[in-house]
Structures are given as C-alpha cells and as structure tokens.
Amino acid sequence: MCTVPASRSTWKGGSSADLTARGQAPATAAAEGRKASTVSLHTDLAMAREEIKTLRAERDQFRTAMRQQLGHQLDQITDPHEI
Q: Is 23 in contact with 54 (CB distance < 8 Å)?
C-alpha cells in the first residue's frame, strides 16, 4: 500500500493528511483503493473553478499590459520626435 508523507505539499496547500482528514483528497483515496466522496469531488471541482477564474483574470491583466506596452513601442517607432 502506498502512503503519502504528511509533510508533502498538495495542490492547494496544506498536507495530504490535512486534506484527507477534511475529505478533500480524492487522488490519494483513489491511489489507496478507496472511492472519493461526492462532497470531496465537489469541493475539488469548486476549488479548480476558482483557480481557473483567477488564472483567467491574471491572463487578461497580462494581455492588457502587453497591448499597452506594444502600443507605446509602436508609437515611439512611428513618431521618433516624441520622447
């Protein structure tokens, strides 16, 4: 049987032992031959959705910053007298 050390970090923080105690470690449960609870799967899904929202917002911020930077660079190229 495979055991995961309690000190090993997991996907969203905390140790695998902490997540298992809260019923939030379906991957570990599956590795040990147990089924994950529906609540655990819903929790993981909600956490993943929140992370996706955060990542999309971050991506949009980076995209906006890059557009502004590239626009500024193009303005300098097309109008060399403006400094």
A: no
> What pLDDT sits at residue 3?
45
**Residue with the two structure tokens 């379906």:** 26
Domain extent at residue 44: 16-78
What is the spatial distance between Cα 32 and Cα 4, in angstroms, rounded to a whole number? Answer: 10
Q: Is the pTM of this model over 0.90?
A: no
Q: Give tens-digit pLDDT for 23-32.
A: 555 566 666 7
**CA-based end-to-end distance of the chain:** 68
CB 12 within 8 A of CB 47: yes
Residues in Cβ contact with 51 at an 8 Å cutoff, skipping those fewer than 6 apart: 12
**Number of compact structural domains in the chain:** 1
